Amino acid sequence: MGIKSRLKKFRTEMDPNIKELKFTMSRIKKSPLSIVGIVILLFFIAIALLAPILAPPGHPSQRGDPYMMPREGIYPEPQPPNSEHPFGTAQGQFDIYYGTIWGTRTALRIGILVVSGALAISLVIGSVAGYYGGIIDELLMRFTDIIMAFPGLILAMAVITVFGPSLDNIMLALVIVGWAGYARVIRGEVLKVKQEDYVEAGKAVGCSDLRIIVRHILPNAIYPIVIMASLDIGAIVLTAAALSFLGLGPPPGFADWGQMVSFSRGYIYANPQDPLKYWYTWIIPGLFIFAFVLGWNLLGDAFRDILDPTIRRR
Amino acid sequence: MKNILSIKNLIVRFYTYEGIVKALDGVNLDIREGETLGLVGETGCGKSVTSLSVLALVPPPGKIEGGNVILQTEDGSFDLLNQDEKFLRSIRGREISMIFQEPRAALNPVYSVENQIAEVLLQHRRKEFCKSALEQIENDLSKGSYKDFIYKFERKIYQKMLDNPNSFSLRILSRIPIMRRYQRRSKTEAKKEVIRILREMKLADPERVAEMYPHELSSGMAQRVVIAMALGCSPYLLIADEPTTNLDVTIQAQILQLIGELKEKFESSVLYITHDLGVIAELCDRVAVMYAGNVCEIADVFEIFKKPLHPYTQALLESIPRPGEKFSSIEGEVPGLVNPPPGCRFNPRCPKAMELCTLKKPMLTEAEKDHFVMCHLYSGSSK
Amino acid sequence: MGLRTFVIRRLLLLVPILIGVSLLIFAVIQVLSPMERAAVYMTSEKDAKNVDAIIKKYGLDQPVYVQYFIWIQQVLQGNLGWSIKQHRPVLTVIIERAPATLELAIFTVPIIILSGIYLGVKSAVHRDKFLDHITRITSIIGWSLPSFWLGILLLAIFFAALGLFPPERLSYELQVHVFSPYSGWVRYTGLYTIDGLLNGRSDITLDALKHLVLPVASLTIQIIALIVRVMRSSMLEALGKGYIVAARAKGLDKNEVINKHARRNALIPVVTLTGMLAAGLLNGVVITEYVFHIPGLGQFAAVSALPPPDLPAILGFALFNGVLFVLANLIVDVAYAYIDPRIRLG
């Protein structure tokens, strides 16, 4: 088939999807919460992209790693915001402004990598289980059940304690914990799509199983799950921040929001009379976490409302 | 012949994303005492909306925007569109009842059959059950046992329910879960009545059916249960919104027969909504034909079949498949009601359309004795 | 089928899942170094010196499947390992710390469930009106707050600035009273709210309640969004069903229809959510106890995970949690069957 006719075929195949998409877009525009969410997210994405401009790396104390926060000296007491350090400095004179800006990149990195990893694993497991059924399905689903039998944070903590604390291990742990939930949903979708006639047709023509799964089943099953998963990025970043806070994440001085709050916790408790004295060390990074997650959750909530078929046509 | 219900010029609009749907555009309908009126029309012509409007249960985004629905009871005549919610609640289920198309959808899956039928009985016939509960209490008291103080307490409660059902103390009592036990007696009495009604519905083994849950019932049984709920309080008018459409033919026949018998026994009128002309022919005394939000013809059932006057009715009857003949259907499509055709809504498809039809909407006039048509062909000929 | 049969069937299904859970933990144990693996079996400080004896005694040089059975035996006898940081068997630590977490849970769970259901129903009934928007926004905000940040913030405002609600479980003087062997204090349950009443010291009960306000608030704010969101959407779905119109056509009052008919059906998906609630609680408790210095299970997990990690403690604790969670899900499933007759009748 020539390119032109292929494109045309693609257009007509996708058309009902395009119409749905347009309808979804219009509903999004009408919901103020989702617009706020989108604005917040765009703001953070912009910061992440512009990080090298907003907070240029290259300070000698960073030793070449732009993700380590620069520090001027080693004076232990945090300094309040001033002209040189707009958000102040944390314990050990790490620049908070730099940390929060580059922390945006860390957060997005964590979110995207974990979601992609969890999706990849769950896609394989879920579609194999759903497609082949029978004992393979049973075994895989039991395995999924067992993973889901543990509360997420605790399992993640167990994994990190075994492999050692670091940012990469946080991501690994969250992938291990996270794929199970998606796998169930994917399996459900695959089961639904499996009944469709074009799958039968594919089999009748002699397509290999892999081809059927990849070309026919997955594109139809995948749409809701990708949305669901990307909206989970907020929750993932939150959990990662909690793990960093507990000390299970990157080392002190790394530009990660959770780590920054953890860093400052000594100074909060040390001063019961005036815990807000070093407010900038924990309120500012915490605010970034909150705003970031809020953006995702607003969008997620609005999307859930929009995609929910029972409420859609109102 | 008295009218039980008169619908005059009913206008209902739905405010949707795609625009304002002018669902009912001046519906006129009369239901007479003791008759079965059939309401025929294609899907989407507004039959269900009409029936829901009678009970003021049109769901949002729909709104009733004009007209009168006049109910004639022994207490007088009332315009249902002008009444407050309290009055309407006393009408629903008691004077006007409704049964629906999908019987199992009308039943709440988490409550048993007897629970749901007893619900409507207790709602409207509570005094009866209080009285028989009180009799039971006297009976228990006369036997004399250590439980006497409980019975005396129950007697006080039921007496209060009889005199002042909305009293403050009763309302508080009903909120406390443990104290709800006092309702046990009236519920037991109501359940006896439920079994009696179920027996009337020709259900085998009504005691067992009463304890079942909706998903355990076959559709035929479920529809009988729904009918039992509707007729429990002997309504003046039973609105049946396509009750047999989703049933298979043998069950349909049974249900139709049942409705016919019950109608006689309970002395109700029936508004039977359907798109099946065969059912109309079998069950109804008079027929009203609806198209795109208007009633275009009302007449005696034999008249309609023998001598249909409105072009739409004629085309409908024409399109009934007969063996040996070619299929004929009505040209064109049912119009979308966001932008309906001007004038008479049937004019784009009407073989006898005149210019007048696109300009002005016809009125429902009596073209022949007791035979009303909404068509310009007949508006000249009146008494 | 009946409720009883259903429960029995679910209990039987429990066994393979528990086996699976234990297998997973065991697999993780195998990844550890031999020294650490030995630590999982220790029962006292002395054993640390005698690693070879342990290897012999628990057959750590035997093939894997033999090891598994030996380990399971130990677990069933109550030996969940030795906590290096706490210097005590893991099970002992768990039992000792459980009441603190339980006390937290007893107050948090009912509040979350009851207010979550109430708000969810009200949101659905008044859809898109002011109340709905406010409820949804506040619950989304609550869900987005980092748990540790919220805890610290609450402490900063209500403790440091206003002096109203302190962290930990009891104020210092009362702690002395409770822990002193001479004061006559009897530890009945380990929950200070209840023990205070049982010991005739209602001031201790009140004090404990005062200390509970902030942690409970912190947990509630975070988790309530879950319940509200699901309740709202399932209520909206229930309100669109046919039996709602049918019930109104019977003449029932609108409120009665909402409460009696819609809500009961809407609760069904929420009941399954309670499982997620338990998970959220177990997760949230880790951070909350850590921030508020409450000596409960969550703090145990947090402290054990801090580098250098106390591996036997973490693994023993994870096992304990897994079992707990599986049991919690069982209870949820049974409750689900109780509410929805369609489930138990097959």
Please provide a written account of the structure.
The complex is a heterotrimer of chains A (314), B (383) and C (346). Chain A has 314 residues and is mainly alpha-helical. In chain A, 75% of the residues lie in helices and 0% in strands. Chain A has one domain: Orthogonal Bundle (MetI-like fold), CATH 1.10.3720. In chain A, helix 3 runs antiparallel to helix 4. With 383 residues, chain B is of the alpha/beta class. Chain B is 40% helix and 22% strand. Chain B has 15 helices and twelve strands. Chain B has helices at 47-54, 85-91, 113-124, 126-143, 148-163, 168-175, 184-200, 206-210, 219-231, 249-266, 277-283, 301-306, 311-318, 355-359, 376-379; strands spanning 3-16, 19-32, 36-40, 62-73, 76-79, 96-99, 237-241, 269-274, 286-291, 294-300, 365-368, 371-373. Chain B has an eight-stranded mixed β-sheet, sandwiched between helices. A four-stranded antiparallel β-sheet of chain B has the order 2-1-4-5, with helices on one face. In chain B, strand 1 and strand 2 (19-32) form a beta hairpin. The longest helix of chain B is centred in the middle third of the chain and has 18 residues, at 126-143. Chain B starts with a strand and ends with a helix. The model of chain B has no long low-confidence stretch (mean pLDDT 83). Helix content of chain C is 77%, strand content 1%. Chain C has a two-stranded antiparallel ribbon. In chain C, strand 1 (82-83) and strand 2 (88-89) form a beta hairpin. In chain C, helix 9 crosses helix 10 (202-239) and helix 13 (297-305) runs antiparallel to helix 14 (311-339). Chains in contact: A-C, B-C. Chains A and C meet through helix 4, helix 5, helix 9, helix 10 and helix 11 of A and helix 1, helix 6, helix 7, helix 10 and helix 12 of C.
Q: Summary?
A:
The complex is a heterotrimer of chains A (314), B (383) and C (346). Chain B has helices spanning 47-54, 85-91, 113-124, 126-143, 148-163, 168-175, 184-200, 206-210, 219-231, 249-266, 277-283, 301-306, 311-318, 355-359, 376-379, and strands at residues 3-16, 19-32, 36-40, 62-73, 76-79, 96-99, 237-241, 269-274, 286-291, 294-300, 365-368, 371-373.
CATH H-level superfamily of chain A: MetI-like
CATH topology of chain A: MetI-like fold
In terms of quaternary structure, the protein is heterotrimer
Count of domain modules of chain B: 3
Shape of chain A: elongated
What level of helicity do the residues of chain A show?
Answer: over 70%
The helix count of chain A comes to: 12
CATH T-level fold name of the largest domain in chain B: Rossmann fold
| CATH-level-2 architecture of chain A | Orthogonal Bundle
Total beta-strand segments of chain B = 12
Which stretches of chain A of 5+ consecutive residues score pLDDT under 50? 310-314
Question: So, CATH architecture of the largest domain in chain B?
Answer: 3-Layer(aba) Sandwich
